[in-house]
Amino acid sequence: MSNKIQSIRGMHDVLPESSPHWQYLEATVNKLLTGYGYSEIRMPVVEKTELFSRSIGEVTDIVEKEMYTFEDRNGDSLTLRPEGTAGCVRAAIENGLIHNQQQRLWYVGPMFRHERPQKGRYRQFHQIGVETFGIPGPDIDVELMAMTARLWDQLGLKDVRLEINSLGSLSARQAYREILVSYFKDNFDVLDEEARNRLETNPLRILDTKNPNMAELVQNAPSLLDHLDAECAQHFETVQARLEALGIAYVVNPRLVRGLDYYSRSVFEWITESLGAQGTICAGGRYDGLIEQLGGRAGHAAGFAMGMERLLALLEEEGNLPEQPRPHIYMVTFGDEAEQAGLVLSEKLRSQLPGLRLINNCGGGGFKAQMKRADKSQADFALIMGEDELTSQSVSLKPLREAGAEQLRLNHDELIERLKQQLQA
Ligand code: HAM
Is the CB of 113 under 6 A from ligand 1? Predict the structure, then answer.
């Protein structure tokens, strides 16, 4: 026998027992976003490599070390999308969705990053992302945060906190960059190797270090918030005032810089302490420069994405996952004729009782074997069609989950009436 082929490290199957949880999350988000006026967009999973290097940034972990990049048969360099923003902006420019209009879009799907897999960090993971175009003010930044706050509320999540920061305008960031580089150069001894490498290429990312030996250095670093221009400072103040007006608690974290280069002004992350090291469940911000950078006419943009695996892990941790819907009925039949009559009856029930969950016994089997399957299916009732039932044009309804409840013999109309009541309960 040949060796079994295994899935790729960091890429997981969603098994039948957990797919209802994914569906629940998607349905809840879909309803919420629709309520705020957002429409779904579906983009390809593969894009030209250049799209990501130009948007996420050449000197970022994602582009430097994590992309699944390959040459296709034409010799073009393609990449499995590591995130959705770049593709969404590309699609919006290409399809004329940006110029002179506002857009509120969302998407869901797999993303790919060759990271070191651990709890909450995978090589294929799933995001639900939201992108808005054409809205310059802090109003949309706050809408994005308020919408996510409402989602946590609807999902029953408690242990989440909002961190916000402003990365200012490009020119403010360039001026700050020089101040930061000179501060880090003065403390060169304390920098680890990665930070020394980042010093010339992407010094802001040093603020994001996880190295405890550099914690104090980073803590005392000059803050970008002290170097914002007046317009950016005003924008950030309005964001804070609106969050306060809405009663949404937040923390200003001046070291929140994000791992992708396209951000400007507001950035935010929702973080939980319940999932260990990978506690960011949702992250995003404003990225006004990106549309132009990708060849569109200059325009405004803001969005976020949440990690579905992390959200589901948190829902499980906090005991907030819904129970799987159980079948109402498992149909048990004996003999050829009864099997056929049972089939006809079950299709009639499905036509007359929308929402009915009914499983037909397939593959034959004796009474015991069929009842065993009925029990295993978790159905509330077994519907039994044997010879007796066949001749009297009736059917037996056997409760499977109520101790001591009696089996009933019903004609078809009585059965439909009874199931109607059951479905309404
Ligand atoms: P990001 O911070 O790279 O931002 O990812 C957003 C979220 O995706 C993270 O907070 C996390 O929940 C989840 N995530 C990221 N990497 C992994 C992984 N390897 N395994 C599991 N979950 C992961 C973006 O992707 C931006 N496109 C967000 C955005 C949209 N900004 C503006 N619009």
Answer: yes
